[in-house]
């Protein structure tokens, strides 16, 4: 975690370390599988390495731009969004952390997200719906939540962990374009690509979901403690949840590409976010603890 005034979370750090280790192990197995499927040749090794390095490089340097585009956002200057920049400036000064780029998405869906490979190369974005529906203090609480993701560096881990899923997804799709061919054991290459891709994608999916749900709770906790107002963040959550439920599906689909990075996501058993009830219960507990300490 970067040195900031955001509360450190040992549980989050441990989970990020475990996720990186297991995801790295899966990735090594995946590249080895690609090499074996391609016949164990020198050319197969070179292809597997180039594939892994190329996708990792793209994800590392361009994931923030992909996320911004998926959210329909654009980076804005202090002149273009003075009030928004003022909130971010104040929070960054309070948290003693570098200021990320600030982006704005002209969509009615109330949400926000943070992405980037490091605190020095990060972006925090909000939507028009969020600014319209929330009071300034509630917007500040949401921004504190997103900034904590940057400070905790869990956005970096999510960026790296997503590489395995991307490669696995490409493998699953590649079987549609493969034309005949068998590996050294006579097994059809199309079938092997599909099976390995499915297994690796499923494992990567589970790892990222487990980490993502915990990191959202950690960000809620850190934001509540930094601002000293858990109830304000809880109020923002309730308002966003209510508005999201009313949104047409076509509007929700516009921001679906970055939903795993967003402040709020419509819950399900496969959701990247914990339930609203769980988040509110944690904030209520923090509120009671702060009241006791006064």
Automatic annotation (TrEMBL):
For this UniProt entry, the molecular function terms from Gene Ontology, in alphabetical order, are: metalloendopeptidase activity; zinc ion binding
Q: Which cofactor does it need?
A: Zn(2+)
Q: Which GO terms describe its biological process?
A: proteolysis
Name of one Pfam family that matches:
Peptidase_M48
Task: Identify the EC number(s).
Answer: 3.4.24.-
Domain Peptidase M48, by residue range, is 78-286
Subcellular location per the Swiss-Prot or TrEMBL entry: Cell membrane
The entry marks the following residues as binding Zn(2+), namely 145, 149, 216
The membrane topology of this protein is:
Multi-pass membrane protein
**InterPro entries documented for this protein:** HtpX_protease (IPR050083), Pept_M48_protease_HtpX (IPR022919), Peptidase_M48 (IPR001915)
The protein's enzyme class: hydrolase
State the similarity comment: Belongs to the peptidase M48B family.
Q: Entry's PANTHER family?
A: PROTEASE HTPX, PROTEASE HTPX HOMOLOG
Protein name in UniProt: Protease HtpX homolog
| Naturally occurring in which organism (per UniProt) | Brevibacterium jeotgali
